[in-house]
Amino acid sequence: MALIVQKFGGSSVADAESIKRVAKRIVDTRRAGNDVVVAVSAMGDTTDELLDLAAECTPIPAPRELDMLLTAGERISMALLAMTIKGMGLEALSFTGSQAGMITTSEHGSAKIVDVTPGRVREALDQGAVAIVAGFQGFSRTSRDITTLGRGGSDTTAVALAAALGADMCEIYTDVDGVFTTDPRVVSKARKIDAITAEEMLELAASGAKVLHLRAVEYARRHGVALHVRSSFSNEPGTIVYDPAKGHPKGEQVEEPVITGIAAEKDEAKVTVGGVPDVPGKAAQIFEIVAKTNANIDMIVQNVSAADTNRTDISFTVPVGDGRRVIEALEAERESLEFENLQYDDQIAKVAVVGAGMRTSTGVSAQLFRTLFEAGINIEMISTSEIRISVVTRADLMDQAVRVLHTAFGLDSDTDATVYAGTGR
């Protein structure tokens, strides 16, 4: 008997018929002889609708109360799913994040998991029941409040439960058949990837790929959790995210592709601190101030200082939701930082090509820059790692950049990818 953790996203449980379809898959897994734990998201666009409702009531919702509101979405879907499974003849018990032992830090809206004590989940399994856990939420022992993990947090809930319970597999169900070479909503000829290394998946998730949440991939890699990304709308085998140190999941000894996939992200903004004195310690001052806002910095570029003024410009990107907060913090310290001007640009996009084969291949950068040049797409910033090249361009050119790069690196499939559901909201 295997222990399998399954996670179903909002599009997979968007309505009653979808919940019935998901329940049947869970029941089939249980009747095949497996213990099953399920982490479930809110139905469809429920979270966005609750956020919209809160914004209608007040321009700045209280973070504690917003968490209380948003966790209602997952509680609805977990209860409906448990009822449906019971109606199919199997015992099922639903648990909130706190009941399932998801212990977090006290930051509302972006809490981190610090411990998982799934005693009640284990008891449910020992009784032969399917355990249904509300994703995206937990409980802070420090503040004694309900918390949320941030968008995509249900993936992290599932992985954390799999790690704590010693699960044999964590299956992430979504509205596509697995991990694709890029978003099939943008490139219809995107190809499904049968197996991808955890390192490559981490880079894709960090660069904007929505199929798996970044924190979930990180957690899985750190705790050795095996991930299987599948569609809840079909029986296709999906994509295995694996540790290359343990070998390819199919035992294949094949050379890694140069480029595995392309990811893109619009939800970032560029901040430029202009006319900064080019002296030791000034950059440290700037980024210490930014760090106090809890903004997550991605790319950083510093220009060569002007010979006549000995001043330079420092540009960096942050999530668009953090941008205004960063600008306000820097503006408040203008006198001590001695910069001349601040610029804020939220009409940018990040496009990244990722592939483990880049370590041993030459010419990838040249091909990327040549392809974007021929498409008339200007590059504003560049960042690299061993297996990734990221560029910043205009937001309205992002989809075009993804399409031309996908074709240039030979990633196009002969057939169109299937997207079963989801609004992309």
TrEMBL record:
PANTHER family annotated for this entry? ASPARTATE KINASE (PTHR21499), ASPARTOKINASE (PTHR21499:SF3)
Chain's role: Catalyzes the phosphorylation of the beta-carboxyl group of aspartic acid with ATP to yield 4-phospho-L-aspartate, which is involved in the branched biosynthetic pathway leading to the biosynthesis of amino acids lysine, threonine, isoleucine and methionine.
Q: Which UniProt keywords apply?
A: Amino-acid biosynthesis, ATP-binding, Diaminopimelate biosynthesis, Kinase, Lysine biosynthesis, Nucleotide-binding, Transferase
- Does RNA-binding count among this protein's keywords? no
The family database entries (InterPro entries) matched by this protein are listed as: AceGlu_kinase-like_sf, ACT-like_dom_sf, ACT_Aspartokinase, ACT_dom, AKii-LysC-BS, Asp/Glu/Uridylate_kinase, Asp_kin_monofn, Asp_kinase
- Which reaction does this enzyme catalyse, per its entry? L-aspartate + ATP = 4-phospho-L-aspartate + ADP
Top-level division of the source organism's lineage:
Bacteria
Specify the protein name: Aspartokinase
EC category name: transferase
Q: Which Gene3D superfamilies does the protein's record reference?
A: Acetylglutamate kinase-like, VC0802-like
Domain ACT residues, every copy: 271-347, 353-425
Family matches, as PROSITE patterns:
ACT, ASPARTOKINASE
Task: Name the Enzyme Commission number(s) assigned to this protein.
Answer: 2.7.2.4
Instruction: Provide any one GO MF term from the record.
Output: aspartate kinase activity
Please give one Pfam family short name: AA_kinase
Task: Name the source organism.
Answer: Leucobacter chromiireducens subsp. chromiireducens
- For whether the record's keyword set contains Signal, the answer is no
Q: Which family does it belong to?
A: Belongs to the aspartokinase family.
List all membrane-crossing ranges.
none
| Organism lineage | Bacteria, Bacillati, Actinomycetota, Actinomycetes, Micrococcales
NCBIfam families per record:
asp_kinases (TIGR00657), PRK06635.1-1 (NF005153), PRK06635.1-2 (NF005154), PRK06635.1-4 (NF005155)
Q: In which pathway does it act?
A: Amino-acid biosynthesis; L-threonine biosynthesis; L-threonine from L-aspartate: step 1/5; Amino-acid biosynthesis; L-lysine biosynthesis via DAP pathway; (S)-tetrahydrodipicolinate from L-aspartate: step 1/4; Amino-acid biosynthesis; L-methionine biosynthesis via de novo pathway; L-homoserine from L-aspartate: step 1/3
